[in-house]
Amino acid sequence: MKQTTRTPEGASGDPAHCVDCGHPRERKACVTPPGKSPGFCPMRTHPEVIASGQEAYEDPAVRELGRQASLQESAGYADRHARPFVKRPCKTRIEEICEFAHRMGYRRLGLAYCIGLEAEARIVARIFSAHDLEVVSVMCKVGAVPKESLGLSDSDKIRAGQHESMCNPITQAALLDDAGAELNVLLGLCVGHDSLFLRRSRAPCTVLAVKDRVTGHNPLAAVYTAGSYYDRLRREG
What is the pTM of this model? Predict the structure, then answer.
């Protein structure tokens, strides 16, 4: 059943609902043209947006980023030319980040990490260094800015009754940009804090891992078990 959502002010037409497409992967128009597509497919309803998005690749820098990203995607599978073709993923995400950086000619990586993953950040930095990449790193609490500066009260803190530094992703991005980071890697930033970082960073960004305090930073665990252990997620709200 097609989802119904409120169209935000300024948006035009029927919004995309790709998750409601019932056609199998190999028959989708977006995967194997001409293929099949439902009436609400954005390729039907918003061809002008599709065309406009494609125009962005006329920028040489954007085009090269997209080209190398596609090459990296292919490189993540072994025996691609063997027939019959059987998918054999062969590279971890951190390996792909290292390879992609080299493909793009980047030498200086920015590492924006959460204090809760400080030990992991040290390991990540060593791995990047082992792949001949320079690492500039900034932790989330940089600046020691009190949460009161955001209008929070003492009762809003995790630990009331004491100084609590706010996470400061805007300053993380600024420091990494100032250091000349060519690709910023996010490691464990909180929901919302990552949004601010991605919004403010001048350099391209990628994510190594996201914050999930309950699942050991594996948020898909709740998705994979939404029909069993986390069934409540589909019933709340």
Answer: 0.91
